[in-house]
Amino acid sequence: MKLQLSIYARKLSNVAGAFKGTSDPFAVVTKIVEEGGGQPEVLGKTEVIKNTLNPDWTKTFVFDCELGTPVKFAVQVFDEVRKGDNKSMGSAVFDVGSLLGAKGNTKAKKLKKSGTIFARVEKYRGEGTLRLGMKGVKLKNMEGFMKKSDPFYELNRKVDGPSGTMWDAVFRSKHVSNNLSPVWGDSTIDLGVLCNGDQSQHILVRVFDHESDGKHVLMGEFETNVKGLVGARNGSAFAIMRKGKESGKIFVTKAEVMGVERLTEQVAAVSVSGAGTTPSAPGAFVPGAAPGVAAATAATGAFVPLAMPQPVSSGQPTFFDYTSGGCQINLSIAIDFTGSNGDPRQPGTLHYMHPDGSLNDYEKAIDAIGGILSKYDSDKKYAVYGFGAKYAGVVRHCFQVGPSSEVDGIDGVIQAYRGVFRTGLIMSGPTVFAEVIQTAAARAASAQEAANQNGEQAYSVLLILTDGAVTDVHSTAAQINQVSDAPLSIVIVGVGNADFSSMQFLDDSHPPGSRDIAQFVQFNTHSRNPQALTSATLNEIPDQLTGFFTSKGISPLPPQRMSEAEISVGVEEEIDLSLNFGSDGEIAVASGGYCAPSARW
User: Fold this and answer.
1) Which of 113, 160, 218, 485 has the fewest C-beta atoms lying within 10 Å of its C-beta?
2) Phi/psi at 7 (nearest 5 deg)?
3) According to the UniProt entry, where is the signal peptide (predicted)?
4) Residue 19 DSSP one-character state
């Protein structure tokens, strides 16, 4: 799929120097190759915005993205120096997977020097281009008696956010100096960027008086759409309004849509709810719980999605459409504590706790695969279960790992896992997945039902870590099929070097007409190749998620947009990346790369 990346920055450090005014920032975006060598690829640079430390760049970067292929971008901000070397203002690295899993598909990174860079990805809907020319007539002067305004116009795309309508600047013209009837040159604008390819979508045209200090003055504005601009070629004028009063007129001198055969009419649709039944399940046993600590309980009863109106998008909905609309991905993890794992006190066994703190095989799998899936879980809170161990002489096939029903982050999972060996656990058997599958399915159905009540969506992923074959593979396959109507995917990960051939049977075994919700990944096969591991882990989940919602007639919600205060801000990451700026405007990577954090194992 094609995505587009947009960036902006706030409170940058002024590096212009004493008595030289304010910096003129621009950003360079470079695609980083993490594994397997290869040169970083410069995708391009934004426009320069004069005299500001809070740039809103209109340039976007379109790129191909295959879910499961790790992609990172380096964003380097520079102060343009016309007669000398550009000055660095800071840099940050963004992981596309983390952006896809973040609320509003937006994240921010603090810079070492000062300031914050914001990055957002969204689906790119290439639908041709608009060739646009405009002129102003008798615009109101903002400069007083001795001078005339220097007008430029800005095109803004409408975005519906949680706090109401927001406008994103996606194009700025050059300013025309000292002229109240400016004629702006023709420009070509990507319709995918301007209006997501929807020529009926509202756009806001704003006209500003350009100021050298960057504090441009609004001269007036009007709302229209691409169809309106094309229709105005016959000589109709748009009145620009400022503070409720007309402040001039704008005429369209050229408006031609290219690369689109016909205008696509948008129609409204209403999704139809579908009812499915997910069996109820017992709650997870809580070992050694203190008084007042309750077991993690699972919801009971039938899952019945609510009918709610949804817009129709062109083509089939994608995984990205659902996550962009705020579909919450909930991750649960189940860990095998059967006796076949060996005595955890003995070196070389899968659960052995290394005195130096290095990770054992299960912890490596939690860190690697849990880390992959966690990118799509925005609240980073995970339910952790164990199975196959005895408490007080009773074999428990689903018990809570850790003192609470959810833990914070992958580090929290590992700490809860380590702590379980201090709860009186005796590793036993047999290897039975049924109860954790039932519990996860009921929890998933409950989460989606609660989300529907709030006009939201939720989907769950159960990660099962095991050292070998399940005791009754056919019974387990039947159990997986029984919960296939739940909003759930199951990823079974083989830890160690046992014979996992029967696990592949669970991956491949689903009756015709039922959803395929399970997949198997052998950790050791991919553990030294993060790209292959990511691809194997995420291979089936996108289709499983979209298959569930479309089978229920549930369309994606509109894309979310968060206010700056709601956006998660991460710490800076070091970039060792040197760029060459050619005299012809070309930018190339001279040396270096992204200093990725090393694996913990």
Assistant:
1) 160
2) -140, 155
3) none
4) T
Which residues have CB under 8 Å from 233's CB, separation 6+?
A: 252, 254, 255
Please name the residue ranges forming H helices in 224-357: 226-231, 319-324
Q: Report yes or no: 347 and 492 within 8 Å, Cβ to Cβ.
A: no
What helix, strand, coil percent values describe the chain, rounded to 5? 20, 35, 45
Tokens at residue 454, please? 């709030």
How many angstroms separate the CA atoms of 537 and 229, rounded? 47
CATH 3.40.50.410 range(s) for the chain read: 315-551
Q: What's the token pair of residue 321?
A: 């459409």
In 3D, which of 170, 168, 147 has the Cα closest to residue 159? Answer: 168
> For 409-480, where are the E strands, in sequence order?
426-427, 458-466
Q: What residues form DSSP beta bridges with 119? A: 7, 107
Q: What are phi and psi of 203, to 5 degrees?
A: -130, 150
Is residue 280 within 8 A of residue 299, CB to CB? The reply is yes
Q: Give me 336's structure tokens.
A: 């095998």
Identity of the residue numbered 80: E
pLDDT at 585: 75
Per-residue pLDDT tens over the stretch 544-593 = 999 999 999 999 998 888 788 888 788 777 676 788 887 777 888 876 55
Answer whether residue 383 shows pLDDT above 70. yes
d(Cα 93, Cα 112) in Å, to the nearest integer? 12
Q: Which CATH superfamily is domain 315-551 in?
A: von Willebrand factor, type A domain (3.40.50.410)
CA–chain centroid gap for 481, Å, is 30
The pTM of the full predicted model, rounded to 2 decimals, is 0.78
Query: Beta-strand (E) ranges in 275-340?
Result: 309-311, 328-336
As given in the structure block, the two tokens for residue 61 are 């970067």
| Phi, psi for residue 158 in degrees, rounded to 5 | -80, 135
Beta bridge partners of 548: none
**Treating both helix axes as pointing N-terminal to C-terminal, what angle do 530-538 and 541-551 enclose, rounded to 10 degrees?**
20
Sheet strands (E) in 414-527: 426-427, 458-466, 488-494, 518-522
Average pLDDT estimate for 369-396: 91
Cα 103 to its chain centre, rounded Å, is 7
Among the four given CATH numbers 3.40.50.2300, 2.60.40.150, 3.30.1490.10, 3.50.50.60, the one describing domain 2-125+567-594: 2.60.40.150
Q: Selecting from 3.90.550.10, 3.40.50.12780, 2.60.40.150, 2.102.10.10, what CATH number does the domain 129-258 have?
A: 2.60.40.150
First to last CA, the chain: 33
The residues that bridge with 121 in the sheet, in sequence order, are: 5
Pair 122, 101: CB distance under 8 Å: no
pLDDT digits (tens, 9 = 90+) for 409-449: 999 999 999 999 998 889 998 999 999 999 999 999 999 99
Q: Cβ-count burial of 561 within 10 angstroms (0-12 exposed, 13-18 middle, 19+ buried)?
A: buried
